[in-house]
Design a protein that fits this description.
Blueprint lengths: L1 H9 L1 H142 L2
């Protein structure tokens, strides 16, 4: 209580001095927090700028690359389109040829029947030739003995 009384006696000058000391103490505390924080913010801002700059550079490179590839793709698509047109024409020609082949095959059907009868006739001829061969073998066997006997008698 004595101190309070002394303080009251000293007046407003003491209060201002005390306020000034408290403010300076508080300012020192804030300086310990604010200045390092400000320095860290500046470093982070510079690093953020660096990242944004590199990102912009990479996006530019990507845009140039995509533009180049799109130009190539467009020319290749044009080639594909041209080739598809040629392929369509070739398929149309093949279709026409297939209808011609179909017409020619329909004319071959009667010939197939005739070829079938020819096949049967050739089989019959083969059998007849086999029979003739067998008959000639018998004939040769039957004539060869007497002829052999006669050949022995002749000089």
């Amino acid at each position: 209580m004595v101190q309070e009384k002394e303080q009251l006696d000293q007046g407003p000058a003491y209060s201002m001095e005390r306020l000034s000391e408290a403010f300076e103490t508080s300012a020192r505390r804030w300086e310990l927090i604010v200045y390092p924080s400000l320095f860290a913010f500046i470093i982070l801002a510079a690093y953020g700028f660096f990242l944004v700059y590199n990102l912009a550079k990479d996006v530019h490179y990507l845009a140039v690359s995509v533009d180049t590839n799109m130009t190539r793709l467009a020319s290749n698509m044009q080639s594909v389109s041209d080739n598809m047109g040629q392929m369509t024409n070739n398929i149309r020609t093949m279709s026409d040829h297939m209808s011609e082949i179909n017409d020619k095959i329909s004319t071959l059907e009667p010939m197939l029947e005739t070829i079938g009868s020819m096949d049967r006739s050739i089989q019959q001829m083969t059998q007849s030739t086999y029979i003739m061969q067998r008959d000639f073998t018998r004939f040769n066997h039957n004539i060869a003995r007497p002829m052999n006997f006669m050949n022995n008698m002749m000089p």
